[in-house]
């Protein structure tokens, strides 16, 4: 069995008085693609934010690469190899594609090259002189993922990477994510596009009201229409 790169044990997270995550237990093995699925508001983004250190858990343990994360800041976690590509595609609108990538690589001990990012996303190479604000939604998403990838993450977390994108762009992005997975990249993906997500993932956790209500292989869930209907908007 592969060793866990990430594990959450009995993790509880709150926004002020509002208790959102309830005793979350999950694990991600090195090289695995794990999907978090669930209806709107079930706690998927909150789980990613808790792992990234943007939200401090009220209780529970998060272990990454064999060590409890405890007080590490989001920057510290990024330095340790955790990258979150947020739902809102944070790119600098006033900077070019190339400048966005240069900035992302800064402060990273062993960044990949900008050319390597253009190999992953040839479209970004064609648009390297364009400002963030002039990119299409799909190009912004590519740039957002490239900004994380250039930092050579050990754990890449993608929050709804396909949201609002045309089917042809979704297919192109799925191909890139699939290739990264084949090359051994560990990925946690949150998506509303259940079919895309189950195609890419090895294992799945289903969340409902901040609880893990199902865990299993993506293949098994693909055939389990009953569980999908019960916990997902399909
Ligand atoms: N900053 C916040 N302050 C207070 N409550 C929040 C905040 N962010 C999220 N919540 C609440 O926490 C719960 C879980 O939200 P979360 O965003 O983690 O769900 P999600 O599964 O990612 O859903 P979505 O697909 O809508 O992003 C929801 O009830 C939401 O209203």
Automatic annotation (TrEMBL):
UniProtKB keywords: Amino-acid transport, ATP-binding, Cell membrane, Membrane, Nucleotide-binding, Transport
- Domain named ABC transporter: which ranges? 6-234
GO molecular function terms listed in the Swiss-Prot or TrEMBL record: ATP binding; ATP hydrolysis activity; branched-chain amino acid transmembrane transporter activity
Per the record, the GO terms for biological process are: L-amino acid transport
Stated name of the protein: Putative branched-chain amino acid transport system ATP-binding protein
Hey, what's the signal peptide range on this chain?
none
What the entry lists under InterPro entries is as follows: AAA+_ATPase, ABC_transporter-like_ATP-bd, ABC_transporter-like_CS, BCAA_Transport_ATP-bd_LivF, P-loop_NTPase
The text of the family note is: Belongs to the ABC transporter superfamily.
């Amino acid at each position: 069995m592969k060793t866990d790169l990430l594990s959450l044990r009995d993790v509880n997270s709150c926004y002020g008085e509002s208790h959102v995550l309830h005793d979350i237990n999950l694990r991600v093995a090195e090289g695995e693609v794990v999907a978090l699925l669930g209806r709107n508001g079930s706690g998927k983004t909150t789980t990613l934010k808790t792992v990234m250190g943007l939200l401090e858990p009220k209780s529970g343990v998060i272990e990454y690469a064999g060590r409890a994360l405890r007080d590490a800041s989001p920057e510290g976690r990024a330095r340790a190899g955790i990258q979150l590509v947020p739902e809102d595609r944070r790119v600098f609108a006033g900077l070019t594609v190339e400048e966005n990538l240069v900035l992302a690589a800064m402060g990273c001990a062993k960044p990949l090259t900008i050319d390597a990012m253009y190999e992953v996303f040839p479209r970004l190479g064609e648009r390297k002189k364009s400002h963030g604000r002039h990119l299409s939604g799909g190009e912004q998403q590519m740039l957002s993922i490239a900004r994380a990838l250039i930092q050579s993450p050990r754990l890449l977390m993608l929050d709804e990477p396909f949201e609002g994108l045309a089917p042809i762009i979704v297919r192109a992005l799925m191909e890139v994510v699939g290739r990264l997975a084949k090359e051994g990249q560990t990925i946690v993906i949150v998506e509303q596009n259940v079919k895309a997500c189950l195609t890419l993932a090895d294992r799945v956790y289903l969340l409902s009201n901040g609880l893990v209500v199902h865990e299993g292989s993506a293949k098994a869930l693909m055939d389990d229409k009953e569980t999908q209907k019960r916990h997902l908007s399909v």
